[in-house]
Amino acid sequence: MEWTEEAKAALERVPGFVRSMAKRAVEKDVRSQGRTLVTAEDVARSHQKHIAFAEDKPEEQTKTRIAVVRCDIVSEVCPGVACFKAFHKRHSHFQGYGENTEIIGFFTCGGCPGRRVSRLVDNLKKHSLDAVHLSSCMLLEGDYPACPHVKQIKAMIESKGIKVVEGTHH
Fold first, then answer.
1. Which residues partner with 132 through β-bridges?
2. What domains can you pick out in the chain, each with its CATH number?
3. How do strand 163-166 and strand 101-108 relate by DSSP bridges?
């Protein structure tokens, strides 16, 4: 596959960690059209097809954006259905949110002592994260013990300027 200089320059503007995937997608689209030369227009068209849907439009910048962090161990048996249902019905700890709220992240802590949370919160901040809910499984005693690191995880998230809400569906 041959690339014009403009197409190469456009590809260089793609973040490095996804550049090879973007290149394959562009080349696949060009190949499906029976061509062998990639142009800047092809890169732009591929961006529209594969990425533009996830970019914020100006009218979406007023949305409240939340994430849910849950216990890595519990995630082996819980698919998160109750958390999502509670959010969609604005039940329990999601009651205060209006219709202009979206979940932009749902992730596990990464295992004790919450080793993944800091990096994921940093990444979500790039997407205008407003609040992180500590899932009910991290807080309740019952079939499994409450998270022994919940206070440290909460403090770390708050230290990044993000509001923490304790709970999801319980």
1. 67, 164
2. 2-53 (1.10.8.550), 58-166 (3.40.50)
3. unpaired
